[in-house]
Prior knowledge:
Layout: H1 17-49, H2 53-81, H3 83-102, H4 107-135, H5 139-170, H6 175-194, H7 209-232, H8 237-257, H9 268-271, H10 273-303, H11 308-314, H12 316-333, H13 340-356, H14 366-393, H15 401-438, H16 446-478, H17 486-494
Amino acid sequence: xxxxxxxxxxxxxxxxxxxxxxxxxxxxxxxxxxxxxxxxxxxxxxxxxxxxxxxxxxxxxxxxxxxxxxxxxxxxxxxxxxxxxxxxxxxxxxxxxxxxxxxxxxxxxxxxxxxxxxxxxxxxxxxxxxxxxxxxxxxxxxxxxxxxxxxxxxxxxxxxxxxxxxxxxxxxxxxxxxxxxxxxxxxxxxxxxxxxxxxxxxxxxxxxxxxxxxxxxxxxxxxxxxxxxxxxxxxxxxxxxxxxxxxxxxxxxxxxxxxxxxxxxxxxxxxxxxxxxxxxxxxxxxxxxxxxxxxxxxxxxxxxxxxxxxxxxxxxxxxxxxxxxxxxxxxxxxxxxxxxxxxxxxxxxxxxxxxxxxxxxxxxxxxxxxxxxxxxxxxxxxxxxxxxxxxxxxxxxxxxxxxxxxxxxxxxxxxxxxxxxxxxxxxxxxxxxxxxxxxxxxxxxxxxxxxxxxxxxxxxxxxxxxxxxxxxxxxxxxxxxxxxxxxxxxxxxxxxxxxxxx
Length: 502
């Protein structure tokens, strides 16, 4: 289905765009919450399928490798095939992969399902954001739509913790996989009826095979490097080898993209000052957010004795504040205030919230230490994420919407991988140093072990604070909200797309 055109050649506004947003949002929620819902289910799946401690991390890594490595290709396929088709194929494939995981009888079957989820997620996620980008072009409506989408993207991880806790505790870990089928069926049915896709916004250039191989293998090496750093340490030969390979491959990719006629990732997408600043600041902010989810989950369950369900409920204030920050603050101000004055202060507020967690002690209460941090983090990230995601896809040529959207997901995925590996390593090192400095004779007392663990969390939160503050600085410095590139503007006007200023 396509939108009709006016006599002047500009497309009429699709009257079904808000209904389409509903199903795009459902799909986005499924992809985002899948990352954390599986974390909650993993201990139960490990026991049920007799997975060793050494192999359990592959349940997470299999997904992240496929998803992170194939995102740029997924975005380009959406530009080539049509975003609606890529969106629906991604949903159906994700549902089938989830069904395979729920029915898994051994580790191999579970890993295959997780890898397939990553493959179809890499097709689905860029298509969802690019559909939103081309459907909402009027400034006020675009702000509202991206506010809703940004809130879901930011809050989905916390929702996954809650949903995973409920399903695991009251039903079975397998339902953490099966639940995706419900999301996918609803979203696919709605997309078939309500989502429109214009053929003249496709990029029908031949696929850049060399660039695709370099980008895919380079991103896989990068994500795998961070996964190994978490397991083996930053100095291990395999970790360093993966990082060196990633740098070489991605540098070669950039060189190829600057010379081929039809690049996988046109460099104009990332060299634009505002888009580049948005990608970089979002990626840095995700490092801090993933660290916050990870260590607060540890603290609440292992140190405070919360059940999985109660732990999920404890994240609800964060979710509520994320939604408020995105839909009520970011959305209302984005067309009145330059993006840098929403993103910068938003990330700074989130950094203050993270800084509060550096004061965490074993006997710290939820009300006095965790809740204030969640409120500041939620409001800050919600306020910053809405203009950040909108700016990251603004003023692109319609034919580039898929790869621009894929870059948002790449920054989030790489940021999350870095956050998990870097901050986990920092926390473990700080914990070991705390114990070594006290020179316990024999085994470490339980109370001391808890103190050491919480000290490690606090140090990791300190690093997260600094990284979040750096995201704020980059938003202030790079995001100028000024003029657009001439090429992008001309391309947009040729197909009747108004250029949205930020």
